[in-house]
Design brief:
Blueprint lengths: L3 H5 L4 E6 L2 E5 L6 H17 L4 E6 L3 E6 L7 H12 L15 E7 L8 H8 L3 H9 L3 E6 L6 E4 L14 E4 L3 E5 L2 E4 L4 E3 L2 E5 L5 E2 L6 E2 L6 E7 L1 H6 L14
Parallel strand pairs: 5-15
Antiparallel strand pairs: 1-2, 2-4, 3-4, 6-7, 6-15, 7-10, 8-11, 9-10, 9-12, 13-14
Length: 250
C-alpha cells in the first residue's frame, strides 16, 4: 500500500551533502501544495528530532536538514529521517491551515515608485490600474527565504504578470521595493542590486530586530496579500519614495 504522502508528493532524492547536513528533493516545479507539505515536514522532523537538528531550511521543492554536532549524517540516520519524511501525511487534520499567518502589506503603486509599471503595461497590454488590481487581488505564499536577510520569495503571480527579469540588473533597488519576476513577487528588505521589475514601494519592515540576529517577519508557509495606498498614506506609514535616479543615495 502506497502512503498518501508518497502518492501526492514522491521524493526524488535524499542525500547526505556532508557530515552534518541532509538534502531532500521532491521536484523542480513551483507548487503551493507541495511547499505547504514541505513546511509540514519541517515541523514534523523538528518535533521528532529536536535534540539532534540544528536548523531546517525549506526551499520551493526541497528541504535541507542541518544536524547539531556531534550528530553525523550516517546511513542509518539518513534512512531514519527519510522514513519520517515518507510518513508525514499531507491529509492529516490541520495540514493546510496550522501555523499559517496572514500578512496584509501596504504598497504605493505610483509611477514614481513603480519604476517598471510603464514597461509592464507596454509588455502586457494592461493599464497600470489593471496591473495594480492583478497584483493586489492575489494571495501569495511564502515559499522560501534567501538572497538577502528578510527577502521572501512569494508566489504564485497571476499569469498575466509573469514577466522575465530585466536583461541588465540595476545596481541598486531601494529597501521596500516591491518587485515581480516570472512566477514570483518579493520585497527588497535593503538596498541591493537586482534584476526584478519594480512595481511599487512599501514601508513594511521585513526583519524583526528584537531578535539577534534579526528574524525575518515573513516565514515559510505564511500567506501575504498586498493592498494599494496613496502616496500620502505611504508617507504617513513611514515610507519615503525612492526615485530611479536617487538610489545611489540610499
Amino acid at each position: 500500500m502506497v502512503d498518501s504522502s508518497q502518492r501526492h508528493f514522491p521524493l526524488r532524492s535524499v542525500e547526505a551533502v556532508n557530515e552534518t547536513s541532509v538534502l531532500f528533493v521532491w521536484t523542480d516545479m513551483i507548487d503551493s501544495n507541495l511547499n505547504r507539505y514541505i513546511q509540514q515536514v519541517r515541523r514534523s522532523l523538528t518535533e521528532q528530532n529536536g535534540t539532534i537538528i540544528d536548523d531546517i531550511v525549506c526551499a520551493y521543492s526541497s528541504l535541507m536538514v542541518y544536524l547539531k554536532p556531534p550528530s553525523i549524517a550516517t546511513a542509518t540516520l539518513v534512512e531514519r529521517l527519510k522514513q519520517q519524511v515518507m510518513g508525514c501525511d499531507p491529509q492529516q487534520s490541520g495540514f493546510s491551515t496550522r501555523s499559517i499567518r496572514h500578512h496584509r502589506i501596504p504598497v504605493y503603486y505610483g509611477e514614481d515608485a513603480g519604476w517598471d509599471l510603464a514597461d509592464i503595461s507596454q509588455q502586457t497590454g494592461m493599464t497600470i490600474e489593471q496591473i495594480i488590481s492583478c497584483h493586489t487581488n492575489t494571495s501569495y505564499q511564502v515559499f522560501a527565504n534567501g538572497f538577502l536577510p528578510g527577502f521572501a520569495y512569494l508566489g504564485v503571480v497571476n499569469q498575466q504578470l509573469q514577466l522575465p527579469r530585466k536583461k541588465t540588473p540595476r545596481t541598486a533597488i531601494p529597501s521596500g521595493g516591491v518587485a515581480i519576476a516570472e512566477q514570483q513577487t518579493a520585497i527588497y528588505p535593503s538596498t541591493s542590486p537586482g534584476g526584478w521589475l519594480i512595481i511599487g514601494q512599501t514601508p513594511f519592515q521585513l526583519l524583526d530586530y528584537r531578535d539577534c540576529p534579526a528574524k525575518p517577519i515573513l516565514q515559510g508557509g505564511d500567506q501575504v496579500s498586498f493592498y494599494s495606498v496613496t502616496k500620502q498614506q505611504f508617507e504617513q506609514l513611514g515610507g519615503r519614495v525612492c526615485l530611479v535616479d536617487d538610489t545611489h543615495h540610499r
